[in-house]
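Note to self: keep these together.
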Amino acid sequence: MARTVRPLPALLGLLLPVLGGCTLVQLGSEADAFCASTVLVGRGAFFGYVAADAGTHDAPAGSFRRAHETIRIRSVVLAGAGVRRVLQPRAQGTEEWLQRYARGEDDAVGAAFSFVGLPEGEYHLVIEAEGYLPHRSRHVVVPGRAPPFTPIVMQPLPG
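Structure:
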């Protein structure tokens, strides 16, 4: 059912932005206001972190494993579904991470990383860090569904 939207005073437009399933949009003067439907579409995302080294007694089953504080990650590569993205983590800047995520930008800080705006599909993750064997794992991304947030445990180089 179409509705005619008449010009609304600016204050009323701020207080009542949703009118029967549509959002009041105003461009320029109040006379240019119109009602627009909104459809939210989930975007695919994958994120995680490299956990600190821990022995059996340091991380019993069900306990939280903190992020690795000293690991030097060279690259985090996510490839699949026609996409290949490479991140080189920054040492600092965790306060910017959430802002970049909200803007739809991939990011990596220290031991944490995030990839956003991914199409649905299967992906392969490779993490390379100084003094550790490369980590390789397979993941499935479904837009609109939160990925599991499981810590990644890197294995030290032998010897």
